[in-house]
Amino acid sequence: MPPKMEVKMMTLPELKRIIKKYDDLMGIVVKGKSAKQLRSEIEDAGYTIDDGKKRIIRLGKVKDKKKRPVKVEAGEPVKPKPKSEAEKKEAMDKKVANMIKMLEKAGYEVKKRKPKK
Question: Would you state the pLDDT for residue 24?
């Protein structure tokens, strides 16, 4: 018999991904909660977490009242679209302009610099 592998618990981002993917669990607010709090809320909702296969299992009922497992597996992480140099420069200029406006409103004297070449 092969030795049993140690199963790692799912991380917070993996739990959030599964909750967002599963329609019935969308009522759970994931913002500002730890993995332990999310686990307890999922289990209170009547689901079990399979850390080995990274999925949530709910025991659903069919017409003949036999229990069948309903499985939802975690999706792949979504990577943000890379920004071009022009978009990065525009975002930085906007950030600097907002900072200058805030400092002037607070009563500080702001000296304008020459742009770098």
Answer: 59
Q: In whole angstroms, give the CA distance from residue 33 to residue 51.
A: 19
107 secondary structure, DSSP code: T
The answer to whether 35 and 11 are in contact (CB under 8 A) is yes
Beta-bridged to residue 28, according to DSSP, are: none
The structure tokens listed for 91 are 């975002």
Sheet order of strands, 47-50 included: 47-50, 55-61, 67-73
- Distance separating alpha carbons of residues 69 and 9, to the nearest angstrom: 21
Give the C-alpha separation, 109 to 44, whole Å.
Answer: 56
- To the question of pTM greater than 0.85 for the whole model, the response is no
